[in-house]
Amino acid sequence: MAFVGPRPERPAFVEELGRIIPRYHDRACVKPGITGWAQVNYPYGASVEDARMKLAYDLYYVRRRSLFLDLLILVATIRVVLLQEGAR
Which residues form the Bacterial sugar transferase domain (predicted)? Predict the structure, then answer.
């Protein structure tokens, strides 16, 4: 597991969402992370539509990952956790 990357889901959810949402498994081509682009940009959600939106953020990260983007995510995570700003 990395500090930054798509947040891991429970295996049962991955299997179900992989059947429902096209390209859902593409997020697995990078190591999962403790925090990610979806977590700092999208509020908590438990619906399939929320999973689709978070997938868009995860795939953005997969396509554009870089040290700069990782640092940006870490700073945003600090703002969300410590300062209670941004996504929840």
Answer: 1-82
